Amino acid sequence: MLSSGKCRYEFKRDAVAWITDRGYPVREVSVRLAVSAYSLYA
Predict the structure, then answer these.
(1) Helix extents (H) in 1-42
(2) Which of 21, 24, 26, 28 is the most exposed place for a label (fewest CB within 10 A)?
(3) The pTM is what?
(4) Whether pLDDT at 21 is above 50
């Protein structure tokens, strides 16, 4: 079983990869994942 900290890290890493590696707009990723665009920039 994964710790919740590791899950959060992987979630954040994957979300940022959608933007940096795949070229998705920040706004689109934030809507799809139901997180604020600010949190993705941070």
Answers:
(1) 4-20, 26-33, 37-41
(2) 21
(3) 0.73
(4) yes
